[in-house]
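Example (one chain per record):
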Amino acid sequence: MSSGGVAAYAKPEPIARRAPCALPAMRFSDVRVAAAESSAELEAAHALVQERYRWRGYDINAGDLHAEAEARQEITFLAANRDVALGTLTLRLDGPRGLRAEGNHGHLVEGARVAGKRVCELTRLAVADGVTSRPVLAALFNLAFAAAEALHGVTDVFIEVNPRHVAFYSRILGFVAVTGETFCERVQAPSVLLHVEMSALGGRLRALARRALLPPVLLRVA
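Predicted structure:
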C-alpha cells in the first residue's frame, strides 16, 4: 500500500506477442517495413542501432539489446530494402521491468500509471546514412503506433531524445518536454524526456504519412 491508503499500482504483465500477420508489413518503392521476427532481422536492426549510435558518439550495451527478459516487452520494427537495413525503431510495452526511461524519470512514468494511463516507450530509433528519412520514419512510427494501440491499448507515449532533437519531435509529432536536460547513463549522453498522448500522436502520424506519400490503407492494423 502507498501512503494515504491507496493501493500501489502494479505493472502489467508483458502482453503476449501476436502472430506476425497481426502486424502487416508496409511497403513503398522497394522498401518493406515490418516487425522484425527472425534472428537475422533482429541482428540487422541491432547492428544499425550500434552503427548510428556510435557515429553520434553514444554508448550502447550490445548485451542489453539481446536480453530475453527485455525482448518480451519489446517489438522491434525494421525497414529494409532486400537485405539492407534502412531504419529501425523499437516499441517497448509496459511490464514487470518497466520502461527504460524510468532509470532517470521513474516518478513521471509511475505518476502516469497511477493516473490510470497505459504507457509505452519508443526507443532505439536509427536510420542508415544516406537514406531519405521521411518515408522510413513515417512507416516506422505508424507501425509502432498501430501495434501500441492494437496490442496494448496504450494511452501515453514516452521517448528520451538528445536535446538537439527535441524541436523535431515537438514540431512533427506533437511531443512535449516533461523534463529539463538530464544525463542518460544508458547511452552516456544528455537527454530530455518527451511525452505525448496517443490521441494526439495519431493525427500527427497520419499527416506525416500523407506527406511521405504512404498508402493510407496500410496505416492501421486490420
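Caption: The beta strands are 26-28, 31-35, 74-81, 84-93, 119-127, 156-161, 176-177, 182-184, 189-197.
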